User: What shape does this take?
Amino acid sequence: MLAVGDSTRLEIILHTKRYKNKIIKQPRIESNEGQPDKTVKIQAEILIQPDSTYPIVISPYKLNISQFGEKIRDEMTFKIQNVSDQDLKATIVDIPDELFEVKIPDKIKAGKTAEAVLKLREGSLEQSFEKTFTIELNDEAKTRFSIPVHRAMRLP
Assistant: This one.
């Protein structure tokens, strides 16, 4: 229950397992405030071959930071390859701050590969989760990429 005039963060999850190519989803948000229900438009392009994206290729395209033993696994690196002919800057536009942080390079030079780092926050070390973070490029199209992050905990 939210008080009148109060706000909250709403998480909408789009599972892409059976979708291909471009999709549009419009979930409806119901409220008792008297206004008509609202809809949110989500447009996505589901890539069957994530190693052929443009203008960058993220490797691995799904970050798995699972822990299967007692040794703490709280950090992993991944690569961002710029396959375009212009230097690019990536900015994080959405991230579950309470779970992890991501450090991306200031600039990814044309035709080059840069390394980025995902680091779990102290409070998320004993959690299992499936989340994403989204980056936006400074290219003309303002291209966005949502990168899945998976963590499973299996301790002996």
